[in-house]
Design goal:
By secondary structure, the protein is of the alpha+beta class. The chain has three domains: 1-32, no CATH class; 39-153, Ubiquitin-like (UB roll) (Roll); 162-385 and 411-527, 2-Layer Sandwich (Creatine Kinase, Chain A, domain 2). 35% of the residues lie in helices and 18% in strands. It has 18 helices and 16 strands. The strands form two sheets. Strands 7, 8, 9, 10, 11, 12, 13, 14, 15 and 16 form a ten-stranded mixed β-sheet that branches. Strands 1, 2, 3, 4, 5 and 6 form a six-stranded mixed β-sheet that branches.
């Protein structure tokens, strides 16, 4: 098939419904019903989310016995906020969906919005609507912030990402897709101690050694139904039999590390999915009497929580990360070079706690140097296997199976520096700007060539000496972000106030010095991030 690869299909919008007829395959079962994890709103309305209209949502309210509308919106702290509207009549429901509501911007964006001019409009984006998994009588929708003149609030985190993405698409004619890897610890009471897991050996563990798979399955079910974008979930490396902490909330409890990985989606959608998923994961954990934390570290010697993003570039909805020769395309190399140029300053949005830099240490599959490599999980940017030049793998195991005519590149590059303290939308906005810079400057190709680290570099230990370093703490990250702020502020993508705000957070964290030889100090630094972002 040469360079021609399979194109984009609507199968991700309807993973199990009658709309999914890619390659002539019907995903309906014999009873003409769809499978369980389709978004209920897609099923009810029989259309993809991007076609949802206000009248559609009013019809859902009318036919499904909806008792409340819940607005969600992302504040300066990166968390979802919410506002509840009881549905007493359809006119009122239609009006709130049409006009949105006011909110106190000075509270949601403290220090960014003047208290004397504090009102903002919060207006729903209909394609984000979903039925609340914790209250099926609630129709929920993500909102965007508008100022009094009806324009997107420039300082809102999702507005920044939207501006960056629009500029990138206009400049390049390409689209950037992202898939997130969401790692977290589930902290729970383990009693009695049966089938005890071994520390640092939990990767892809199964029951009964993996204790809380049923809770992970519940999280995945809700996230998959709402987003349609979950690839898989599994037990991760980390396991702590007994947490020693001054925090009564977690002291004496056990912790299992888990991961939910997503399918590639347009970068703005993925940002919303990450914030929404953290909300779902915490709520499911709470309902089981557990705690879910995305903190970078819980204990010395134990695996940390990363927040990795895989990225791919698409033209006309086709992945262009590999060329006809099977090698990384020039576009992919540019992307890698752009990420290398922005990498140190991106820690300002992706590694926002003192404990972040306890995770970024050598020999922990966490990067410390600015370089890229094939497959190696210690590199800042990793090029994983992408089914390139090899397909029909199942036929090799099942020789009676006929080959498939699908030939679609799934190549990505993975940025491995960020952790669970990340502000998702600014982080992804910075990544988009790194990609945009890469296509405006040939220096990106030079950087990609210069900063490649082959297997021999890691085996010999030369990586530490031969490649630039990531910041070692929050104060270094702040200094670099301020030094490189023009990379973010040009064309008004990042308001200066947002850069100043992030710099102030990093400075505050950096002032919390600790003695790495005192285990009490280490625990305090690690555990105070339990519920950050």
């Amino acid at each position: 098939m040469g360079c021609i690869r399979g194109g984009f299909s609507l199968k991700y919008l309807f993973p199990c419904s009658k709309y999914n007829k890619t390659l002539g395959v019907s995903y309906m079962n014999d009873n003409n019903t769809s499978c369980a994890l389709i978004n209920p709103l897609n099923e009810i309305l029989q259309k993809p989310a991007y076609l949802f209209s206000r009248s559609d949502l009013v019809r859902v309210i009318q036919t499904q016995g909806i008792e409340r509308i819940t607005f969600h919106y992302i504040a300066l702290d990166g968390r979802l906020k919410e506002l509840h509207f009881p549905v007493t009549d359809l006119y009122g429901a239609d009006r709130v969906l049409a006009e949105g509501e006011r909110a106190d911007g000075s509270s949601l964006f403290k220090g960014m919005v003047d208290e004397t001019l504090s009102d903002l409009y919060i207006v729903p984006e209909y394609k984000t609507a979903f039925l609340n998994p914790f209250n099926p009588k609630s129709l929920d929708v993500i909102c965007r912030y508008l100022t009094g003149d009806g324009e997107r609030a420039p300082f809102a985190l999702d507005s920044i990402l939207s501006r960056a993405n629009a500029r990138f698409q206009q400049n390049t004619g390409l689209e950037l897709y992202a898939l997130g890897e969401l790692e977290f610890f589930l902290i729970f009471e383990q009693n009695p101690m049966l089938y005890t897991a071994q520390p640092q050996k939990g990767y892809h563990a199964a029951a009964p050694f993996f204790k809380n798979g049923h809770i992970l399955d519940e999280m995945i079910r809700h996230i998959a139904q709402i987003t349609g974008a979950v690839k898989y979930g599994h037990s991760e490396v980390g396991f702590l039999e007994n947490i020693d902490s001054s925090m009564l909330e977690i002291n004496g409890k056990s912790a299992e590390q888990m991961e939910v990985e997503f399918q590639p989606r347009p970068v703005e959608d993925m940002a919303d999915y990450m914030v929404l998923s953290r909300w779902i994961i915490r709520n499911v954990a709470y309902r089981h009497g557990c705690i879910a934390t995305f903190a970078p570290k819980l204990a010395e010697g134990a695996a940390g929580n990363g927040f990795h993003f895989h990225l791919d570039l698409r033209r006309d909805q086709k992945n262009i990360m590999r060329g006809c020769d099977g090698k990384l395309s020039s576009e992919a190399l540019r992307l890698i070079g752009g990420l290398c140029e922005y990498a140190d300053s991106l820690t300002g949005f992706g590694n926002m706690s003192a404990s972040s830099y306890l995770r970024l240490v050598p020999n922990q599959e966490a990067p410390t140097q600015i370089c890229w490599s094939d497959l190696n999980r210690s590199a800042l940017i990793r090029v994983p296997l992408g089914w390139e030049g090899i397909n029909d793998l199942a036929q090799r195991i099942n020789p009676r199976e006929q080959g498939s005519d699908v030939s679609e590149s799934r190549q990505t590059v993975e940025l491995r520096s960020a952790d669970g303290t990340a502000l998702v939308h600014p982080l992804l906005a910075g990544i988009v700007m790194a990609a945009d810079w890469a296509f405006q400057s040939d220096l990106s190709l030079e950087l990609a060539q210069k900063l490649y680290a082959g297997p021999e570099a890691f085996k010999s230990g030369d990586v530490q000496d031969n490649y630039p370093s990531l910041p070692a703490n929050c104060l270094e990250s702040r200094e670099i972000l301020l030094k490189k702020r023009e990379l973010y502020e040009h064309d008004g993508i990042f308001p200066a106030g947002v850069i100043d705000y992030v710099a102030s957070l990093l400075e505050s964290e950096g002032k919390n010095q600790f003695d790495v030889n005192r285990i009490e100090d280490l625990e305090m630094i690690m555990h105070r991030d339990l519920h950050k972002h």
